[in-house]
Amino acid sequence: MEVVVFGATGRVGRHVVDTALLREHEVRAFVRSPEKVDPIHRDNSHLSIVEGDALDTDAVERAVQGTDAVLSALGPADGSPIDVAIRGGENILAAMQAHDVPRVVILGGRVISHPKDPFSVSGRVLSFAVDLVAGDLTGGGERLMRTLAASDYEWVMVRPPWIRSGPRTRDYRTGYLRLTALSTVSRANVAAFMVRAAETDRWVGEAPMITN
Question: What is the pTM of this model?
């Protein structure tokens, strides 16, 4: 399968690239700064580097065209707008529609709510706190999920809690979970789940949480 990874040099994105290559996919790494691509991957014949900005619609279209799936690990970074994941996500969906790319896996967050979520006091408190300081981002993420839900895309939105460093393991849970304020997950496990979601139909049309 040929996939394009947006945010490929980010803290989660670099693990997505690593996992996709380990699983022998053809990977396009969409990056603003090619020199930040992990040196151990630069000579990998299954990796190609596409330089561009996720807010540039033409660059996004070039990256998406001809792929089988998109994995977006976009998030705020030095020099990028705080809402780059939302605006970039909208550009990705437009490019997918233009070039008939069926599947997308998007990294979201636990503060984006879903009707299947179990009630959680700590979750409601966290969502309320985030809304106070970054309500536009939460609203934008939920708007993006509604756009996906109303579309014909084979989409998955992965919603982790606090993301931390740590190894890739098999010891993580996915689904509509009752998370706490102390719930965490490693970046490597988030990446592994994102790649798995691109490979299978198990979570198509869903927004699962993931936690260790």
Answer: 0.89
